[in-house]
């Protein structure tokens, strides 16, 4: 077998400035794409070998899109046309600013410029029980686990004798009323209305309850009150049970207890309630505020000239955004592109230019013909127009010709047929401790 | 949590004859589709909740197609239009012919007619070591594991210092020169030529060796000598190392030893060398010959009038096929359709008609513009014409409008761009014992 000791990073030495980028999300790839290998050596670290289009991840969880449609291999995005570009599917474990190196399990690497673009990870606020039993929705394997869990639950509900147990299989509780939670809830509601009755003719899906639990006083808190109100109306039209100003106290895999005491029996708790910055060891604590690196308008981390942070992991405060930029794709994309420009200016002996966020507006989709959009200058759209805008923007930004086509076809196909193509339990979902999934695969495997 | 004791099959009682089908492959679904719910109650058991188009499985393993493109949810194929049809994603553990019931983990079910359509499973000929370390290619998770293993091996090779270890990572040994082995080898050769050099600019893929090991004296033994000869030529043109009349003695996960003593260091041994019928407990031993149920021309299992076997699990000998029909899709499809006709004849008080196999010919693809076809009347095609025929036939037979489109687009796209879209390590491949995969994920996960 191969041991880690036998591996090394194998990054060629160079006389060019070496830019080390940690993270292949929207920020990282937009920075790397704009840096020419003639001027810089670019080294990109990312745990997965693909770039994920996370705004559509909920589509994978609800069997609307295949995982491959929202992910693009990083080596395909940065092919031979990218001179002196080096991708390593490796986790960076430590930053050593004094020696200007980063540490990985197979060796250290010197950097001239280090860019932290690690984004966020699910935040369970220290609740180990919820971490253990709930379904987060941050990565493709999360979405595939949730897809399997949902489909397995329907199959189990179709075979259970106990009405209370059936109800707990048909109760889906989504915690978090942000874009992910709202879009997940809407997608499940469409599945309940258009797909499941045809798949399970014997079953009564009016029993299927979709709960959306939000701690604040409105859904989609990052968006305008107008859009929140429209979204609330859409969700209720689609039969989603919305609980505002409600926090989750505990979940034991069987019963979720809400603050205030209300209890809901469910086998599936979707955790879209919060994220925390994916910080890296070695940085001084004073550079971090609430899980994000404090950066100036040049994205330089406080106290450093050669360490930068972009996207969700960066906290840049401006007059327009006193609490930092919204945690969506656009600021990350723009900061990545802007930082590339600044690196080039530096080479030309010019000074950095401060980052200015250009707000293109934000969108959320609740269902077919139901979406909301906040555009600049306080323009708020809803309904079909917003839905078309959402569709266009997402297909446009999906990276990779093929993926766009596959996604487009899936969309057109689903729009006209109300069909979902990918209701596959490819890997049964199984928790390590003997829970429902274990029982499910017992049904299929005897050996 | 949910316990199996809380589940039951929940199949409604009926006065109609109940046809129980075990297996949702080509035979099972073509039988079920032709039986009307007005005349019969149809109960289909299949371990997965989807029907797989297995002839294209190798495409998933080599990152050419996404898994969802070759699989169709069974509940989507048999929707509300199919009256009194019942699918259960459950394994049948036993047949009790005396009581005319089948046994599952959640209860027994009575049948009037039982159809065994379980197909085949990988056959390691009792070699536990090969079973443990090799990569079979029978199910979608097999293909995804192999895809991850191949991509992980390239990433590791790109980071290893030891030339011998790099070689063992770049050596791929495919055991079995049948259609699966040949198509897998051809697809890997195209990947080596058109994809990998662009993905790994620093690496020399002339070092990558693809071995195809076959025990008999020609590749594609089921096809005509002409096609075998053409295929052999194509494979050699593509730089595949073919070893005929060669058997594998052992493989310890590091070194494969061939009968005769030759050894090849490889981390990836693809096992396409044999299949065995997936028989079920409870049937008398005399009904089974070399892993298949002996059936008459009506597909009735020897000694039974109410138990049938179709497709790969059935051994029907005719003058034209003294050793049974070839283990491909066509006989299964035709036997399923024919048995449906016979069941309907029975209802009309008519007698069964004997099955007659209509040979539409057989096809195999080696690479772009390289395929072979054996057509009736000893017509043998090769090259571009056969390739187009292969493409047409496979797209035509892929079940489901959407999947056909996705597959077609992938094909057109790949044909013109030499690109493969789905080179994703979505789940790192990890063996239970601490092998290479374990090391690989260590690179990515610290927590």
From TrEMBL, chains A, B:
The keyword Transferase does not apply. PANTHER family: EXTERNAL NADH-UBIQUINONE OXIDOREDUCTASE 1, MITOCHONDRIAL-RELATED, NADH DEHYDROGENASE. The keyword Protein biosynthesis does not apply. It catalyses: a quinone + NADH + H(+) = a quinol + NAD(+). Its EC number is 1.6.5.9. Belongs to the NADH dehydrogenase family. Coiled coil: none annotated. This is NADH:ubiquinone reductase (non-electrogenic). GO terms for molecular function: NADH dehydrogenase (quinone) (non-electrogenic) activity. The chain crosses the membrane at residues 379-399. InterPro entries: FAD/NAD-bd_sf (IPR036188), FAD/NAD-binding_dom (IPR023753), NDH-2 (IPR045024), NDH2-like_C (IPR054585). Residues 360-416 form the External alternative NADH-ubiquinone oxidoreductase-like C-terminal domain. Residues 18-336 form the FAD/NAD(P)-binding domain. Keywords: FAD, Flavoprotein, Membrane, NAD, Oxidoreductase, Transit peptide, Transmembrane, Transmembrane helix.
């Amino acid at each position: 077998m191969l041991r880690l000791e036998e591996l090394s990073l194998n990054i060629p030495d160079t006389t060019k400035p070496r830019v080390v980028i940690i993270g292949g999300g929207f920020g990282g790839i937009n920075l790397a794409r704009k840096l020419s290998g003639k001027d810089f050596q670019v080294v990109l670290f990312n745990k997965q070998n693909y770039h994920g289009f996370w705004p559509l991840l909920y589509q994978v969880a609800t069997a609307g899109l295949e995982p491959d449609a929202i992910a693009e291999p990083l080596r395909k995005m940065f092919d031979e046309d990218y001179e002196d570009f080096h991708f390593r599917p490796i986790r960076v474990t430590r930053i050593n600013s004094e020696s200007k190196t980063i540490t990985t399990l197979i060796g250290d690497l010197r950097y001239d410029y280090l860019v932290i673009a690690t984004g966020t990870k699910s935040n369970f606020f220290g609740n180990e029980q919820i971490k253990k039993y709930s379904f987060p929705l941050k990565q493709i394997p999360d979405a595939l686990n949730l897809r399997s869990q949902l489909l397995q639950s329907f199959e189990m509900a179709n075979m259970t004798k106990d009405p209370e147990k059936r109800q707990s299989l048909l109760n889906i509780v989504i915690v978090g009323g942000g874009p992910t939670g709202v879009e997940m809830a809407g997608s499940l509601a469409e599945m309940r209305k258009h797909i499941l009755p045809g798949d399970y003719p014997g079953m009564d899906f009016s029993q299927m309850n979709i709960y959306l639990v939000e701690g604040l006083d409105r859904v989609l808190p990052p968006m305008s009150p107008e859009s929140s109100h429209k979204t609330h109306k859409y969700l209720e039209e689609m039969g989603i049970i919305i609980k505002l100003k409600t926090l989750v106290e505990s979940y034991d895999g069987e019963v979720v207890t809400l603050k205030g005491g209300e209890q809901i029996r469910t086998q599936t708790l979707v955790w879209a309630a919060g994220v925390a910055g994916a910080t890296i060891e070695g940085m001084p604590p004073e550079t971090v505020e609430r899980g994000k690196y404090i950066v100036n308008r040049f994205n330089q981390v406080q106290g450093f000239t050669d360490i930068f942070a972009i996207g969700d992991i960066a906290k840049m405060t401006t007059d327009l955004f006193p609490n930092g930029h919204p945690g969506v794709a656009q600021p990350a994309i723009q900061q990545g592109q802007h930082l590339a420009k600044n690196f080039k200016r530096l080479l030309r002996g010019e000074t950095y230019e401060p980052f200015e966020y250009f707000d293109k507006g934000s969108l959320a989709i609740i269902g077919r013909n139901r979406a909301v959009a906040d555009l600049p200058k306080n323009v708020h759209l809803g309904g079909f127009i917003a839905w078309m805008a959402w569709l266009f923007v997402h297909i446009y930004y999906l990276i990779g010709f093929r993926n766009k086509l596959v996604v487009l076809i899936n969309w057109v196909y689903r729009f006209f047929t109300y069909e979902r193509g990918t209701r596959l339990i490819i890997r049964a979902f199984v928790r390590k401790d003997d829970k429902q999934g274990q029982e499910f695969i017992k049904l299929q495997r005897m050996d």
